[in-house]
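Re: weekly structure request thread

Next one in the queue (192 aa):
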Amino acid sequence: MEVWLASQSPRRAAMLQPLFPGLKCEGFTDVDETPTPGNVDSQVLSICQKKSEAVLDGHGFDLVVVCDTLLADPDDMDLTLGKPNDTLEAAMMLHRLSGRRHQVWSATGIQLQGQWTFFVEHAIVEFDELTDEQLVELVLSESWKGKAGGYDLAGPMGKHAHLIDGHESTVLGIAGEAMELLQTFSLGHQGE
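Done, posted below.
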């Protein structure tokens, strides 16, 4: 099965590579990732749909996957925390999330036989209260680069963050239900 993960995320690629060994992992650099107004679930879905619109017909893949992830601001559930642009933004985001729970929203689109199906889910993550030293260490690790909310649950932040509810894959960038579906596609095509 020829699968294209239209994403530049190494974490998403790491989740799908074992399922689809010949996985092509190449995202778009020219998609406007500005969310439309609305709740976080509609915002993350709008970005995911923009990415799906960038997938042109005739690509030759059996399956195409597009994704986006946003965090809901713990103080205002209608505001989002995206990817920090620099170390200062990363430090501010991590400080804001320190000692608190927040929602992580992922939208995933799967194109199979020319038809798109979209999944939108959230998970709840809780951070330990971060010391100044831990905060500096996390920022200097640069694990925040390209990550919504400025952290990677499967990276250095894993020592300080706890999944309270939902799928881990949702926090890592692929909606849990979509990940389960992709696993069934993988099992159904092993040995081809």
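The first strand starts at residue 3 and ends at 5. Residues 103 and 124 are 5 Å apart (CA to CA).
Next request, please.
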